[in-house]
């Protein structure tokens, strides 16, 4: 049938690039140069240096002095001594990511489909926390969750706080992480929902899917790129975070970020261990992210 | 969750009105579409045709009135409960699913056991079998359109709704899809309701065309009837071209009404005029007007004019002729001979037409919006 052949052969054959394209590509490299230099000087070089530090050994008898070496014992020490810290980091970051997702999805959905003329105001409210410092906002949470605060008192009245206290517990840490990274979850999900064609969602209803089934089979899968981006933007910084633990968490049972911070700044001669911990954390996050994207990745859907 | 309603028979809209705030999108519209027919809703954008379609689909609820299929009242039921499917204007394919999963989406929701087989058959009907594993973004516009059609047809709906389905295709592909759609409709025998602003598309495909304007149906009938005998000024101008002029009826001459149109006396069959006294809009289609050098001696109306422009179109030649009243008429002459055209701009010609081919409609009333 002619109609089919016409439809199939519609795509134009690939054309050879015009001659000026090669000339133009030099401009592209020139434009890349500042960015490449910046990354080279401020990211690649420090990274190489950090890798070198992570393999250094101490001078015996001279605390705080090191010599270049290939001392993999630093990594062994990092993994054996601080395994619980790694576990806590991933557990708290994972919980915060789940909570942030549960809070952010309905919010992003409302922003995209139900907000109407309130949309801009709501978006400003989502972004507004960025106008004050991260540290200050986390300090504020130590007030909010304080024992004398109305949150704990109300919960205590209903016998919902076993120890009578939330501040300085892992619960406060997870709450702080959830709060601090919520906008990073809301915005990508909102962006992917907002981009979705409402007719496609209507088509679900037209094809015998009720509201819930349409959400499960159409809306949610279409927003997966946003969910993926949001969970990564929340989980990765949360796993390396130490501020929430420092300001809201207990004295014992720290996260790996706190250990790195202490090894660098408080423990004499802690540099190699801190560097090894940093590299291990980075590798662990990369592996987790790789597995996660392999499982839920939707590269065909952009 | 309620299942899909069982309903069979003609589609009926009874006194349906839809308002959005102060705006009346569809105004007291009643319509009956016989089962198995190809029905077109034709009108300019904003005339309420898409809103009408969405009320049939269940994507909008009427502010007043009822929507029925056979004896089953579907008013108030949700889209997923209706035995009605839609081919959306932008196709609205699910971007995260393959072509096959797009097509089997409906059967799966209805818990059909042979969803995969049904999808295969539907893809075969639209000749897209080889594309089952592709994603919609890997298809051209025409291919996406076929998948959208298969996705709706696979459910064997009682009524299939098409919302400007060919609007995004180029002219050549559109012509081919018009033929294809007509073939598929004949093959599956479902009721098709086709919304379009393209009068040619509506006239080539549909058995019955309803011309809509400002939320109301101006005229409903077979394409040829609408074209040959428009009943309103809007239809006369919206469907095809018409040479028109406002005049006053002065009397009768046997079966003819005699009217004075801008100084020219014309006759119209009484049965072809919607008004029989006072002012009227007189009209005659361009191909019904004959152009000749010599004064014709027939019983027809004749007027003397001056050729302004001649365009040779192959099958026909189109003339623009300045009339004594100051208006310009357009005339088509079929090129039955191979003799060269001997009329040039500036030549004096006689225009003549059969009074039985002219029409008259109310002079006031809505025009193209």
Account of the 3D structure:
The complex is a heterodimer of chains A (302) and B (369). Chain A has 14 helices and two strands. Chain A is mainly α and 302 residues long. In chain B, helix 4 (115-125) packs across helix 5 (141-153). Chain B starts with 10 loop residues before the first strand and ends in an 8-residue tail after the last strand. With 369 residues, chain B is α+β, with helices and mostly antiparallel strands. Chain B has helices at 49-57, 99-103, 105-109, 115-125, 141-153, 171-188, 199-205, 223-228, 233-238; strands at 11-20, 23-33, 38-42, 64-69, 72-73, 84-87, 159-163, 191-196, 208-213, 216-221, 243-253, 256-261, 264-269, 279-284, 290-292, 301-312, 316-322, 328-334, 348-353, 359-361. The model of chain B has no long low-confidence stretch (mean pLDDT 90). In chain B, strand 11 (243-253) and strand 12 form a beta hairpin. The radius of gyration of chain B is 25 Å and the shape is elongated. Helix content of chain B is 22%, strand content 35%. Chain B folds into two domains: 11-228, 3-Layer(aba) Sandwich (Rossmann fold); 233-361, Beta Barrel (OB fold (Dihydrolipoamide Acetyltransferase, E2P)), CATH 2.40.50. Chain A binds chain B through residues 1-4, 6-8, 10-11, 197, 199-200, 202-210, 213-214, 217-218, 221-222, 224, 298, 300-301, and chain B through 1, 4, 57-59, 78-80, 84-86, 88-90, 92-97, 105-106, 109-110, 127, 135, 137, 140, 142-143, 146, 151-152, 155, 172-173, 176-177, 179-180.
Uncertain stretches of chain B: none
Number of structurally distinct domains of chain B: 2
* Proportion of residues in extended strands of chain B: 25-35%
In the CATH hierarchy, the third-tier topology of chain A is known as MetI-like fold
Task: Give the mean pLDDT of chain A.
Answer: 88
- Rg calculated over all Cα atoms of chain B: 25 Å
Strand tally of chain B: 20
Helix and strand pattern of chain B: EEEHEEEHHHHEHEHEEHHEEEEEEEEEE
Strand order of the largest sheet of chain B: 6-7-8-3-9-10
Cα end-to-end separation of chain B: 43 Å
Q: How many strands, what sense, and barrel or not for the largest sheet of chain A?
A: 2 strands, antiparallel
SS-based class of chain B: alpha+beta
Q: Report the radius of gyration of chain A as a whole number of Å.
A: 25 Å
Tally of individual helices of chain B: 9
């Amino acid at each position: 049938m002619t109609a089919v052949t016409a439809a199939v052969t519609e795509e134009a054959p690939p054309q050879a690039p015009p001659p000026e394209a090669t000339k133009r590509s030099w401009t592209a490299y020139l434009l890349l140069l500042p960015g490449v230099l910046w990354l080279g000087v401020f990211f690649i070089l420090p990274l190489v240096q950090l890798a070198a530090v992570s393999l250094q050994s101490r001078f015996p008898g001279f605390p705080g002095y090191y010599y270049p070496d290939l001392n993999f014992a630093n990594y062994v020490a990092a993994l054996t001594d601080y395994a619980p810290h790694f576990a806590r980091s991933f557990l708290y970051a994972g919980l915060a990511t789940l909570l942030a997702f549960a809070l952010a999805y309905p919010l992003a959905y409302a922003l995209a489909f139900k907000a109407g003329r309130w949309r801009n105001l709501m978006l400003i409210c989502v972004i507004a926390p960025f106008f004050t410092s991260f540290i200050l906002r986390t300090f504020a949470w130590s007030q909010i969750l304080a024992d004398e605060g109305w949150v704990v008192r109300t919960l205590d009245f209903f016998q919902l706080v076993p120890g009578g206290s939330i501040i300085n517990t892992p619960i406060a840490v997870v709450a702080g992480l959830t709060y601090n990274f919520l906008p990073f979850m809301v915005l990508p999900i909102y962006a992917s929902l907002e981009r979705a064609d409402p007719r496609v969602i209507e088509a679900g209803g037209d094809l015998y899917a009720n509201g819930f089934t349409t959400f499960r089979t159409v809306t949610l899968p279409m927003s997966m790129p946003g969910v993926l981006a949001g969970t990564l933007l929340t989980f990765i910084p949360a796993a390396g975070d130490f501020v929430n633990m420092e300001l809201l968490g207990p004295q014992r049972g720290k996260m790996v970020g706190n250990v790195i911070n202490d090894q660098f700044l408080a423990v004499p001669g802690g540099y190699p261990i801190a560097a090894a911990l940093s590299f291990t954390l980075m590798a662990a996050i990369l592996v987790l992210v790789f597995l996660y994207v392999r499982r839920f990745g939707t590269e065909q859907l952009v | 969750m309620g299942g899909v309603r069982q309903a069979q028979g003609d589609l009926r809209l009874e006194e349906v009105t839809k308002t959005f705030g102060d705006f009346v999108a569809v105004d007291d519209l009643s319509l009956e579409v016989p089962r198995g027919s190809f029905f077109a809703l034709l009108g300019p954008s904003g005339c309420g045709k898409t809103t009408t379609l969405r009320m049939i689909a269940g994507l909008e609820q009427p502010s007043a009135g009822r929507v029925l299929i056979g004896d089953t009242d579907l008013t108030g039921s949700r889209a997923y409960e209706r035995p009605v499917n839609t081919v959306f204007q932008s196709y609205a394919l699910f971007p995260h699913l393959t072509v096959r999963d797009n097509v089997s989406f409906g059967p799966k929701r209805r818990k059909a056991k042979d969803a995969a087989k049904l999808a295969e058959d539907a893809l075969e009907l639209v000749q897209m079998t080889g594309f089952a594993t592709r994603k919609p973004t890997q298809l051209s516009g025409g291919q996406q359109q076929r998948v959208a059609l298969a996705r709706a047809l696979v459910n064997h709906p009682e009524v299939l709704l098409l919302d400007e389905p060919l609007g995004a295709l180029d002219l050549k592909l559109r012509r081919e899809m018009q033929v294809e759609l007509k073939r598929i409709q004949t093959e599956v025998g479902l009721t098709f309701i086709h919304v379009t602003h393209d009068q040619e598309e509506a006239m080539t495909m549909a058995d019955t065309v309803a011309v809509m304007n400002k939320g109301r149906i101006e005229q409903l009938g077979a394409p040829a009837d609408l074209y040959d005998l428009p009943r309103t000024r809007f239809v006369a101008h919206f469907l095809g071209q018409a040479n028109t002029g406002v005049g006053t009826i002065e009397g009768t001459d046997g079966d003819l009404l005699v009217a004075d149109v801008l100084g020219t006396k014309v006759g119209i069959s009484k049965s072809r005029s919607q008004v029989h006294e006072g002012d009227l809009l007189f009209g005659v289609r361009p191909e019904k007007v004959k152009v000749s050098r010599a004064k014709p001696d027939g019983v027809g109306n004749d007027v003397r004019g001056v050729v302004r422009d001649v365009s040779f179109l192959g099958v026909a030649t189109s003339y623009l002729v300045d009339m004594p009243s100051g208006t310009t008429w357009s005339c088509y002459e079929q090129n039955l001979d191979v003799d060269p055209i001997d009329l040039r701009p500036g030549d004096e010609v006689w225009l003549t037409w059969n009074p039985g081919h002219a029409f008259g409609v109310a002079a006031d009333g809505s025009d193209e919006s």
